[in-house]
Specification:
Layout (H helix, E strand, L loop, with lengths): L5 H9 L5 H18 L7 H12 L1 H10 L8 H24 L7 H24 L14 H9 L6 H26 L7 E7 L18 E10 L4 E15 L4 E17 L4 E8 L8 E7 L10 H7 L2 E6 L1
């Protein structure tokens, strides 16, 4: 049974030294979320400094705090060591679960999931400490932390084997942290490519016009996603085409190809643009609308129809 009144329990949960570590964890979590989404901070090194502990340490520490609420359950070094290992496990499991959801492993779902998990562990840890006698509650020794860490490496009461194991464990944690920081700071460059797609009037991959009347407009959207690891200037060109199938040669031939519209834009790496486009033709006789995308190497004006399509970086079409 606890010797505290209800008011004392509320004070303990919010302000007492036995929950100071959980309060710090909550404040750090809030600061990391601000660093991710605030316009100025999310482009600075502050974001990395604040968010790395949320991935590598905070979830595991709060889980350990919820599981081991007593002072003498485990010592400080074991808490810190387990916090790193469990954080990596928790983040990996959350990512695995998100991979099988409609949201996928993206920034917003990951931030929300980690935030909910960490806050849940903080609340459970606070509640479990409230149920204990004041002297039994774990209290993070902020003032004595330096001396405790120093003593853990050179304790008089521990054997030489214990000291070696402590040093090896600490070095393993340090190597794991430095490796993670390096992977995040210097990401491996993946495949270079550009997305090029056409969406219908409702911005979905459907409802494309299959009959076109001269002079009428048909709303479409043209999408470009730059994943080239550099800024790229793109040019979009649309053409009205008449193609006929030659039964003798079993091939299609371009009978005519008239320009309809063009647009240029520059996109940074990982930037995507959705461009509204009103499809309209001034004469009849087309059975295909061709969409050509060029990068820095634009088309030669002297190219014929087939060479123009072959010279494009990406090409799409709608049959009408």
């Amino acid at each position: 049974m606890s010797d505290d009144t209800f008011q004392e329990k509320i004070y303990t949960a919010l302000f007492e030294a036995s929950t100071a570590d959980l309060t710090v964890a909550l404040v750090w979590l809030a600061a990391s979320i601000l660093a991710i989404y605030l316009p100025v901070l999310n482009e600075s090194s502050v974001r990395v400094v604040l968010t790395l502990p949320v991935i590598l340490f905070l979830p595991g520490y709060c889980l350990i705090a919820a599981l081991f609420s007593k002072e003498d359950d485990i010592d400080l070094i074991e808490r810190i060591a387990l916090s790193f290992g469990l954080s990596i496990a928790v983040v990996s499991l959350i990512g695995l679960c998100l991979n099988f959801t409609p949201w996928g492993i993206r920034l917003d779902p990951l931030v929300i999931s980690l935030t909910l998990f960490t806050m849940a562990m903080i609340l459970i840890a606070k509640y479990r400490r409230m149920l204990l006698l004041r002297g039994q509650r774990f209290r993070f020794p902020f003032s004595e932390i330096a001396s405790m860490i120093r003593n853990s490496f050179n304790p008089h009461e521990k054997s030489r084997v214990d000291r070696i194991l402590t040093i090896v464990l600490s070095l393993s944690i340090l190597i794991a942290v430095l490796t993670t920081i390096y992977v995040i700071a210097v990401p491996k460059e993946g495949e270079r490519f550009t997305e090029f797609f056409i969406l219908g009037e409702q911005q979905k991959a459907a409802d494309y016009p299959d009959h076109i009347v001269v002079g009428e407009q048909y709303p479409l959207y043209i999408g470009i996603g730059n994943h080239e690891y550099r800024s790229v200037t793109y040019m979009i060109r649309t053409y009205g085409m008449l193609m006929k199938f030659d039964n003798t040669t079993n091939t299609s031939r371009i009978m005519s190809m008239d320009p309809l519209w063009q647009h240029s834009l520059t996109l940074a790496h990982n930037e995507t643009a959705i461009i509204p486009y009103n499809l309209s033709v001034e004469k009849s006789g087309y059975n295909r609308i061709e969409f050509l995308l060029f990068n820095e190497t634009g088309p030669d004006p002297a190219m014929n129809s087939s060479d123009l399509i072959n010279a494009s970086y990406r090409d799409l079409h709608i049959s009408v």
